[in-house]
């Protein structure tokens, strides 16, 4: 899926998707929720720890 297609699916502009993908975006809970729904991944919550 292209960044433009993802932007359309989550109803956000292309530059928003580009900022999230590049790691430059300031996390927004609403946008993260849309990304989780469309991509089928969990982006919020407790970090996964790889312990010893």
UniProtKB/TrEMBL annotation:
It comes from the Eukaryota. Residues 1-46 form the HTH cro/C1-type domain. PROSITE patterns: HTH_CROC1. GO terms for molecular function: DNA binding. Keywords: DNA-binding. PANTHER family: ENDOTHELIAL DIFFERENTIATION-RELATED FACTOR 1, ENDOTHELIAL DIFFERENTIATION-RELATED FACTOR 1 MULTIPROTEIN BRIDGING FACTOR 1. This is HTH cro/C1-type domain-containing protein. It comes from Papaver nudicaule.
